[in-house]
Amino acid sequence: MTTEAPATLAEKLWETHVVHRADGEPDLLYIDLHLTHEATSPQAFDGLRLTGRAVRRPELTLALEDHNVPTDSTVIEDPVSRLQIDTLRRNCETHGIELYQLGHRRQGIVHVVGPQLGLVQPGMAVVCGDSHTSTHGAFGALAFGIGTSDVEHVLATQCLAISRPRTMAVEFTGELPPGTGAKDLILALIAEIGANGGQGYVIEYRGAAVRALSMEARMTLCNMSIEAGARAGLVAPDETTFAYLKGRPHAPQGADWDAAVAHWRTLRTDDGAAFDRTVELDVSGLSPLVTWGTNPSQAVPLSGRVPAPASFTDPAERVAAERALQYMDLTPGTPLREVPIDVVFLGSCTNGRIEDLRVAAEVLRGRRVAGTTRLLVVPGSVQVREQAEQEGLDRVFLDAGAEWRLPGCSMCLGMNTDRLTGPQRSASTSNRNYEGRQGATARTHLVSPVVAAATAVAGRLSAPADLG
Amino acid sequence: MEPLITHTGQAVALRRDDIDTDQIVPAEYCKRVVKSGYADALFARWRQEPDFVLNRPAHAGATVLLAGRNFGIGSSREHAVWALKDGGFVAVVASGFGDIFRRNAMNNGLIPVDQPVEVVQELMAEAERDPSFTLTVDLQQLRLVVGGRSWPFEAEQRARELLLQGLDTIELTMRRGELIEAYERRRPSWLPTVPVGSGSEHATGGAR
């Protein structure tokens, strides 16, 4: 390796997965782990059936039920949803694919369960028919979302023919102030570079602020790379990564562990390697962020006000702001802290892990959810739920008047039965505030877990410090 | 897939930036297990507004969608591409596309034509003046053609060839079987596998 030109981490990950390369063709890339779920796989399995193809490596695919499951029961009432779930079960049965279905002790959101089991390791190439597959880049894995045609391609060949993306370095300088976290970090970046700022790139997150993050926080950060438009997000593996992985059910053991760690230590961007683009962001002045519009780049500090469309110099941004404010039913100049919230959603592949529940529970301990507000707490997996119950967090949530629910994607995406109704307004720890995302006419404000918890208590957008 | 070489059709302007795939197909339509029949899902929420541009009879036959900046961002749902195709569209002309959408589109023979904002604006103005405004997307020459004017566009070379010849991309990869096997022999032994039953010692048996 020492004689080779300096390379970025993304380039190293890419190169080690190239099965075949030829001029005028995209690289043929090997996929180490394919995660799948009920919502984007049925048509892929249909394709296999129609062409008479088999699944090449069934033991490299794991299926979960997450998008279209209820979180108040393990019985699916809706016949359309039931058919989708049954279809996944039948397909997994036919092709010999491991499935953790509703009610299984390992069930949960794909992007929460995979890492928990130690299935996602540094240096791997991971795909899933879900855009938030970028989550797994937190381990120094090349992980990206794919459509259903590509799901079929991976099932049949364990490969994808794909062109190499460009590389972007995001250097977070300074130290994160208390009260802020990974969610604020990524919202700040998206506000800075825009919802298309990362298009065509794999982002590597760098800097002391990233090194200081836990694995779960790194997952939150990488998770929303797609909201910056990026194909994938990455954090180079380090001692934090190795400590997280050690002892997990699918992590290497014994001599394998030592060999793996020795390899993982080489997975870093070489000194002198060039990125196609570099963005620097000083995080030392960061405060909790909240979105006011209908795309994740439309975010401001919670201490701020709803912006006036006229304040945008770019005419397209001005038009987008006007439309967003109309949809969100917000008046320019209104302090964000005065915006009342009907429903708070704590969960999702962005913020549904144990650390998210812990920090939210700390805010809620000894307090009550406002009478005008509903708080749903949806753990990202059964394992997260059980861990929380062992720590007594469920009691904290229930005593505060929150709903303690079963794992799933829940209210993140308006697909299963957990949805906002009518013009309800939410503060949500999920990842998308698009029009209609959480319900046909619903309004979403994206926030961090601590802001979600404080908002539930105050009944309007708030940070823990506001609760007195 | 049928070969796709060039397409000439009526254009319609949808003047919005950052159109995400949740707008193209709301999640509730993604419960379906089929790959076609999504015409009713296309822009389902926006179509409830009577004046929405795609509701206007004059644009009923449109096959080329002109959209703003950054089209098809967000969710990886390929349903968005299926719905556009079921809605009669063969190409989308926009300034920038979501990476996953762009790939899904090429995989399904929906051509993403990336153009500078000024070009899209010009075309939109013409489509709004004259609903019968027609343009040609030439995948062979990689040009967008309107009357005597034309603009180049880019497409991934391999994906373009597959569309031009109507070839199956999975078949092409399967022809590399020996290379894939050789790669598999080189993979480190510690890499994880999830065979059926690997999580069974943890199963509660309560699954329905």
UniProtKB/TrEMBL annotation, chain A:
Residues annotated as binding [4Fe-4S] cluster: C349, C409, C412
Does the keyword field hold Iron-sulfur? yes
Write out the GO MF terms. Answer: 3-isopropylmalate dehydratase activity; 4 iron, 4 sulfur cluster binding; metal ion binding
Q: Top EC class per UniProt?
A: lyase
* Enzyme Commission (EC) number: 4.2.1.33
Domain (Aconitase/3-isopropylmalate dehydratase large subunit alpha/beta/alpha) spans 11-459
Instruction: Quote the PROSITE patterns the UniProt record gives.
Output: ACONITASE_1, ACONITASE_2
- Reported cofactor(s): [4Fe-4S] cluster
Task: Name the CDD domains for this protein.
Answer: IPMI
Q: Which InterPro entries match?
A: 3-IsopropMal_deHydase_lsu, Acnase/IPM_dHydase_lsu_aba_1/3, Acoase/IPM_deHydtase_lsu_aba, Aconitase_4Fe-4S_BS, Aconitase_4Fe-4S_dom, IPM_dehydratase_rel_enz, IPMI_cat
Q: Which key words are in the record?
A: 4Fe-4S, Amino-acid biosynthesis, Branched-chain amino acid biosynthesis, Iron, Iron-sulfur, Leucine biosynthesis, Lyase, Metal-binding
Pathway of action: Amino-acid biosynthesis; L-leucine biosynthesis; L-leucine from 3-methyl-2-oxobutanoate: step 2/4
Pfam families from the xrefs? Aconitase
A GO term (biological process) for this protein? L-leucine biosynthetic process
Tagged with keyword Protein transport: no
Q: How is the cofactor bound?
A: Binds 1 [4Fe-4S] cluster per subunit.
- What catalytic reaction does the record list? (2R,3S)-3-isopropylmalate = (2S)-2-isopropylmalate
Q: Which PANTHER family match?
A: 3-ISOPROPYLMALATE DEHYDRATASE, HOMOACONITASE, MITOCHONDRIAL-RELATED
Chain's role:
Catalyzes the isomerization between 2-isopropylmalate and 3-isopropylmalate, via the formation of 2-isopropylmaleate.
> What family does the database annotate?
Belongs to the aconitase/IPM isomerase family. LeuC type 1 subfamily.
Q: How does it assemble?
A: Heterodimer of LeuC and LeuD.
Q: What's this protein's name?
A: 3-isopropylmalate dehydratase large subunit
Q: Which organism is it from?
A: Kitasatospora aureofaciens (Streptomyces aureofaciens)
TrEMBL record, chain B:
Q: Which domain of life is it from?
A: Bacteria
SUPFAM superfamilies, from UniProt?
LeuD/IlvD-like
Q: Does the keyword DNA damage apply?
A: no
User: Amino-acid biosynthesis as a keyword?
Assistant: yes
Report domain Aconitase A/isopropylmalate dehydratase small subunit swivel positions. 1-116
InterPro entries according to UniProt: 3-IsopropMal_deHydase_ssu, Aconitase/3IPM_dehydase_swvl, AconitaseA/IPMdHydase_ssu_swvl, IPMI_Swivel, LeuD
Instruction: Name the catalysed reactions.
Output: (2R,3S)-3-isopropylmalate = (2S)-2-isopropylmalate
MF terms in GO: 3-isopropylmalate dehydratase activity
Keyword annotations for this protein, in alphabetical order, are: Amino-acid biosynthesis, Branched-chain amino acid biosynthesis, Leucine biosynthesis, Lyase
Q: Which EC numbers characterise this protein's activity in its record?
A: 4.2.1.33
Family statement drawn from the similarity comment of this UniProt entry:
Belongs to the LeuD family. LeuD type 1 subfamily.
Name listed for the protein in its UniProt record: 3-isopropylmalate dehydratase small subunit
By which gene is this protein encoded? leuD
